[in-house]
Design brief:
The protein has 136 residues and is mainly beta. The protein has one domain (5-122): Metal Binding Protein, Guanine Nucleotide Exchange Factor, Chain A, CATH 2.170.150. The protein is built from two helices and ten strands; from the N terminus they run E-E-E-H-E-E-E-E-E-E-H-E. It has helices at 35-40, 108-112; strands at residues 5-11, 18-24, 29-32, 44-48, 52-56, 61-64, 72-76, 84-89, 93-99, 116-119. The strands form three sheets. It has a five-stranded antiparallel beta sheet with strand order 4-9-8-7-6, with no helix packed on it. The protein has a three-stranded antiparallel beta sheet with strand order 1-2-5, with no helix packed on it. It is globular, with a radius of gyration of 14 Å. The mean pLDDT is 92.
């Protein structure tokens, strides 16, 4: 498994949006069963906001907010890919949720071995994993 803090680079599909993020994958990744994350098949590495750098394409990003309207779900207006989102939570403070699938320099075999924590956003029970994780 990829361990230790390292700078990873990512982008949307068309390359209009590019970013760098300092991620320690030993801290794990998350998958959530809320309706938005389920439909997007979202898989994220959550990092402190200070560990994220938007390198290109801020003007190409479009924002979607749902539910409590606290998280900014950002996606590329050209290709529709959601490379990251931002928010504030009691668990993480100010954070950026980086899409694991948008990391360009993360090899597929390392990606497949990443630890995952499942979140029960559907029932707003963030401390108890959902009973069924097959479809998230």
């Amino acid at each position: 498994m990829t361990g230790g803090l390292r700078t990873w680079h990512g982008s949307c599909h068309c390359g209009a949006v590019r970013f760098a993020a300092d991620i320690d994958f030993a801290r794990g990744t998350i998958r959530c069963n809320c309706s938005l994350c389920t439909k997007q098949r979202n898989w994220a590495a959550v990092v402190p906001a200070a560990a994220f750098r938007l390198l290109q394409g801020g003007g190409a990003l479009t924002e979607y907010r749902c539910n409590t309207r606290t998280e900014r779900h950002l996606f590329c207006a050209a290709c529709g890919i959601r490379p990251f989102g931002t928010g504030t939570s009691p668990r993480w403070g100010d954070y950026v949720a980086v899409s694991v699938h948008c990391l360009d320099d993360l090899p597929a075999d390392e990606r497949a071995a990443l630890p995952v924590t499942y979140l029960n956003g559907r029932e707003d029970d963030w401390n108890t994993p959902p009973a069924d994780v097959r479809n998230i």
